Amino acid sequence: MKLRNITIALSVATLLFSCQKLDQEPLDAYNADNFWKTEAETDFAVTGLYSGTRGSDGKLAEGSAWEDGTQIFYMDCTSDNSNSDFPWEGFQALGNGTATPTNSGNAESRYTYEHIRRANYILENIEKSPVNAEKKKRLIAEVRVIRAYKYFDMATLFGGVPIVTKTLTTENSFVPANTQKEVLEFVEKELKEAAADLSYAKGGGRMSKGAALGLLARCYAFEKKYQDVINTTQEIISSANYKLFDDYATLFEEANENNSEVMMNIEYLVNIQGYTSLGIMLPNSMGGWGSIVPTQSLVDAYETADGQTISESKSYDPANPYEKRDPRLAATIVYPGALYNGKYFDPLNPKSEDYPSGPDNASSTAYNYKKYIQNPSSYANIWNVGTNIIVMRYAEMLLLNAEAKIELGIIDNTVYGNIDLVRLRAKMPKVDKAVYSGQNKLRELVRRELRVELAGEGRRRFDIIRWGIAKDVMNGPVNGALSKGTVDPKTGKVTYTSLTDRFFSENRTFKAGKNELWPIPQAVIDNSKGTLKQNTGY
After folding, report:
1. pLDDT above 70 for 57
2. pLDDT tens, 526-535?
3. Domain 1-59+112-198 has CATH 3.40.50.720
4. What are the residue ranges spanned by the domains of the chain?
5. What is the pTM for the complete model shown?
6. HEC string of 91-132?
């Protein structure tokens, strides 16, 4: 069951400090003295950490939930998967390498202790609650996982940050940063201890043992602790609690939310706590904003249907680049000539609403994302949907397990088996063992699988940073589809007059030793009174 939003604001400033004394406590509000008296109040507190808070107008406070679907989608714009077409949305500068401490874009939203502070407050006070010991243990573990998630996010984006495990007053809030290694070790400890107090659960609305272990596997992967990755992912696999959903394309649809593959998600309820930004990915001709657009680099990563790369396959036809390809391409991306929402997508006609250099909301690459929106007309209002946004799913665990074994040189049947499970679900052929037999070729394969399987889900930056390849894939132009040609409105057949001219989005730079981390927002540095130092190169 989806977590419902609550009206209580778990703000330390609100709960712990009062501007004036009143003769009578307010009967319609909570404070530090009258809270934690009932089980319901405890549930309110923990649920509020998940679901966020509402203001006096009844609207959900932006960024108040533990994670945000829009943040997930936009993160791919800081990788070679996607481009952010609008600089004011906060991700373009982070993607093209021009972000600075004073122009840090979305870094301001990610360098935040709001949920850590709220989690600390709960952990400091939950013992006052009359909740039974078993439930209290579970709730504490859930809160620790959310806190660890936030610390892991900041550590991978900013490096070393202060580890704060108690609520702070203004006077003692100037805390120096721990190293990235120390933060990651803290995350590991928190997740291992929390996982021990949690059980497996299908769905992903609440933090479970699977969610804690999955996040732990990500942490180990980032640190290149491959044996620990193997052990942790194998524990998840052996639990038999999760399995791949049958159909890749509809995996993300509201009708199939909380399916067998989902390990962690952000829950939304239409009209109550609806997700209000799904339309940002729709083509302009459908009322979308074209804010997050796939790159040609991503499109080229999809194999042909025979299981070969486009540079290797004899079936690949540059004049018909989207035919006979991995089915995940059509399930993920709207491309020229694709049948979508009852008509053939045409971004090649200069008079089209989707022509890249035409309307402001047209995709700069002539591609749009299709994930979560296989059928736009299925939503009564695309700007208010109840679709859960997936943060973690089982396919990633299978691939991380295979990757870790490859990195350690353990080339056994489980490596092929785990990759094959993901490929076969996508209607792709099994791995050709004759081609992919050595470590280098298998590394190439599993990295490609991670890319195309999770495209548009916000994971790509995490991977290219930990693999050390960002400097190779994040420098140079961001191109889109072939730009010269026509789309037949009756058949969708695309006829190109040039096989070299492409739509162009922007030029990117990535400086090794600098851009692996984001700049710490200058306001954070200033507010630290000299305690925090800026990341190298900024």
Report:
1. no
2. 999 999 999 9
3. no
4. 1-59+112-198, 278-387+475-508
5. 0.92
6. CHHHHHCCCECCECCCHHHHCCCHHHHHHHHHHHHHHHCCCC
